[in-house]
Amino acid sequence: MPTLGVNIDHVATLRQARRTVEPDPVAAATLVELAGADGITVHLREDRRHIQDRDVHLLRQTLRTHLNLEMAATDDMVAIALAVKPDYVTLVPERREEVTTEGGLDVLAQVDRLQGVVATLQGADIPVSLFIDPSPLQIEAAARTQAAYIELHTGAYAEARRPDDRDRQLQALIQGTSLAQGLGLRVNAGHGLTYWNTHAVASIAGMEELNIGHSIISRAVLVGLERAVMDMKQIITQASCQQQPQASA
Ligand code: PXP
Fold first, then answer.
1. Domain count, the chain
2. DSSP per-residue codes, 136-150
3. Is position 191 annotated as part of the catalytic site?
4. Is residue 189 part of a domain?
């Protein structure tokens, strides 16, 4: 059975929309852990659009489960990872204009460079995962970098609308997992997984961890909204019961 890593970037997105202190992703991480998640995933983007450096440092101090730091393979980010020492790092492609991580890393085009980044991080006891599409060429290239893990991009599977297309994408994930394991890689998966499409991916033999964010945080907004409105209503109701009569002029 795969473990669940919960990506809490979207909590930080809501905070950054107001540049305020709530909701605090560090507080959210504690609740996520108490609910049974096996790990916390955050993406520290170059443009710091959601998760901030402060979050990563505090999470490192407060988490009881593991911290998966998603990041671009840049010198600046490698320096941060070496200082923070997350339990593992997932290297992702990053483009400023994208809404979210859109495709997998092109490992094939940069095996030598990634080998260096992997050697630096793993030399400091930080296992590295490469976020890639389930393509045999990318999986074989990932194995050549000596990374401990890959994370298979499940976006194409999640977005497939026709059943035959979805089946084809699922087969690619199943075969990709098996190829990767044969090459000595450990396998995680994520992106676009929801309450409706996760079962099939969680059933893939040997899958180690699923990283899921948007769908869980979206459900949290809806299942938590009723309680949040009731709490505010109670404050207003109590205040109106205790209202002082207006002083007459
Ligand atoms: N895995 C990786 C590498 C990601 O970049 C993301 C999105 O930040 C996720 C998993 C989670 O994707 P989602 O938010 O669609 O569940």
1. 1
2. HHHHHHHHHTT-SEE
3. yes
4. no
Give yes or no: 70 in active site: yes
Query: Are the C-beta atoms of 68 and 87 separated by less than 8 Å?
Result: yes
Between the CA of 35 and the centroid of ligand 1 the distance, in Å, is 20
Tokens linked to 146: 């000596």
Q: Residue 103 sits in a domain of what CATH number?
A: 3.20.20.70
Please say if 43 is a catalytic residue.
yes
Structural domain includes residue 143 = no
Over the stretch 27-76, which tens digit does the pLDDT of each residue have? 999 999 999 999 999 999 999 999 999 999 999 999 999 999 999 999 99
Protein residue with its CA nearest to atom 11 in ligand 1: 191
Q: How far is the CA of 248 from the centre of ligand 1 (A)?
A: 60
Cα(117)–Cα(48) distance, rounded to whole angstroms? Answer: 21
The model's pLDDT over 90-148, given as tens digits with 9 standing for 90+, comes to 999 987 666 666 789 999 999 999 999 999 999 999 999 999 999 999 999 999 999 99
